[in-house]
Amino acid sequence: AIMNYEGQICGAPMERASFMLPVMVGCSYNGCKFCNLFRHLKYRILPLEQVENELKRVKNCNGNPKRIFLGDGNAFDLPTEHLVSILQMIRSYFPDYEMVNMDATVTGILKKTDEELKTLYDLGVRHLYLGIESGLNDVLEFMNKDHNLPEAYRAIERLQAAGLIYDAHVMTGVAGKGRGIENAEALAASLSKTHPAHVVNFSMFLHKEVPLYREVEKGRFVQADELECMKEERRLVELLAGSGTPILYDGFHDFIEFRVKGIIPKDSGKMLRKLDEAIGKYEAEEPVYSLVYGECPNLQRCDNGADVWEM
User: Fold this and answer.
1) Taking every pair of C-alpha atoms in the chain, what is the biggest distance, in angstroms?
2) Sign of CA dihedral 202, 148, 43, 68
3) For residue 260, what are the β-bridge partners?
4) How far is CA 89 from the centre of its chain?
5) HSE of 190 in the Cβ direction (CA atoms, 13 Å)?
6) At the N or C end, where does the chain have fewer CB atoms within 10 A?
7) Residue 3 pLDDT > 80
8) Minimal CA–CA distance to 136: which of 128, 145, 124, 127?
């Protein structure tokens, strides 16, 4: 029995071992200027019957997952009663499950009442991955994110008060050329204030078919090269190391196949050394830009079809 699934589930690296349960196709917001993950999909909520069929399929294969990730783009933004139905269904098939995690938006969290957040916690929802992206309000506005920083702080405070765990998705390069260090410092201040358990940092890809590319053509956005992105990441790691709260950090530069990961502050020394080594190497070379041509929802280098990143 094979999972019947349209589109793609985009999960954090920490969810690689989780059972991926599709509950929606695409992303209900799908408005971020830089994002190419769900543009080729028509958003819709999957029928509960289809979700249940997938749970049956896994149970019939003798599956007994302890950690479950709900896909696609922003499952936490589904109506609470619908999420509750899914969670109750999960419990009936896999009574031993330990947690259910998913992506969320700031807006989606703010729409839920404190009682709804607590109800979802009581049904096993734990990690919420939030696309924070930048520590600069003007960048969030320019990129058409669904939130500003004060809204993000309010949402994070409320989810943490309900016992839920906040995980941050951020992006080096999102502020554009010449603003990497400024963004790193603003982001470090923001993350130090909100205490994410995980930080997943992707160096921004620029796809020719996303709205951000139109801004490049108009001269309103200039892409940072990978060297600047690594210097931005180095500053971020350095500043987070000073905040004292342990953070599981995973940073990707898919286009140049470079990754730095560890627990900050414990591993920050070796992480900074790895970054310094890469920075030294790229300072001696021509600038490299993470620019992808054509429609590439699976993060492939479209000019030759080669995988950019192998985990």
Assistant:
1) 58
2) positive
3) 251
4) 26
5) 27
6) C
7) no
8) 145
Measured CA distances, 33 to 98, 130, 133, 226, 269 (Å): 35, 16, 12, 20, 34
Per-residue pLDDT of 55-92, as tens digits, reads 999 999 999 999 999 987 789 999 999 999 999 999 99
Tokens of 278: 């890469």
Q: Residue holding tokens 């994002």? A: 35
For every residue of 223-245, DSSP letters joined together read: PPPHHHHHHHHHHHHHHHHTT-S
- Contact indicator for 133, 171 with CB cutoff of 8 Å: yes
112-137 pLDDT tens trace = 999 999 999 999 999 999 999 999 99
Torsion on CA atoms 189, 194, 200, 204, rounded to nearest 10: -50
**Secondary structure element (H or E) that encloses residue 24, with its range:** strand 24-25
Backbone φ, ψ for residue 125 (5° rounding): -70, 130
- Amino acid occupying residue 274: K
Please report which residue ranges of the chain form alpha helices under DSSP H: 48-60, 80-93, 106-111, 114-122, 137-142, 149-161, 180-194, 211-217, 226-241, 268-283
CA atoms of 191 and 199, how far apart (whole Å): 9
At position 70, the amino acid (one-letter code) is L
Question: Hey, what are 128's tokens?
Answer: 């919420």
Token readout for 292 is 């992808």
